[in-house]
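Hi support team,

I'm filing this because I wasn't sure whether my run with MD6 finished correctly. The job status page said complete, but I'd like someone to confirm that the output block is well-formed before I use it downstream. Pasting the exact inputs I used:
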Amino acid sequence: MSGADPLTVRGATVWPGCLDAASQAALMRDVQAIWAAAPPRHPVTRWGRPLSVGMSAAGALGWTSDRRGYRYAPAQDDGRPWPPIPPALLALWARLLPQARPPDSCLVNLYRGAARMGLHQDRDEADLTQPVLSVSLGDEALFRLGGVARGGRTESLWLRSGDVLALSGDARLIHHGIDRIRPGSSDLVPGGGRVNLTLRVAGA
Ligand code: MD6
Ligand code: FE
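And here is everything the job wrote out:
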């Protein structure tokens, strides 16, 4: 572990350079083990359009989307359970968020090329008093933060490999998204791109 003191951007807590190079490489190996058990896929939205982000997950609950809409799911589409959350991520959560309940879900998102994620809120979790913690690996990404209400002013920051960010307290329900990545800015992810891991307490 390494890195500077946390900073606050629109209520979100950011720990720049929280994971050192060795921790990032170890976590990338954990991600590859998750992908071996739960390969990234591009689920379709309610409107039938595949997401540009490749999605996998770990923990008791993963995430799925299809024509019925988005939801947490206890198993993959083929019925297999999601692989376990890597112990290093559980330890990071416990260290940075000692008051929170342990996470039961870790979404694993892969951004390649022009992949992006539109402005959204994370509000499908059963207990919205619990934080969401995100870890960035690989290529840099332009992260946009807005307010709890839709519309209004937004602010952007570049998230780099090893950066960690939490949405908690009054910032738990702010709008946020990824405008774009900077392809080729890191060689951590095999095949290129960016991985974002988000740890949550999804279930009751
Ligand atoms: C991403 N992150 O960084 C997308 N959600 O690729 C999220 O959607 C996110 O970073 C909740 C809390 C932190 C996040
Ligand atoms: Fe989110």
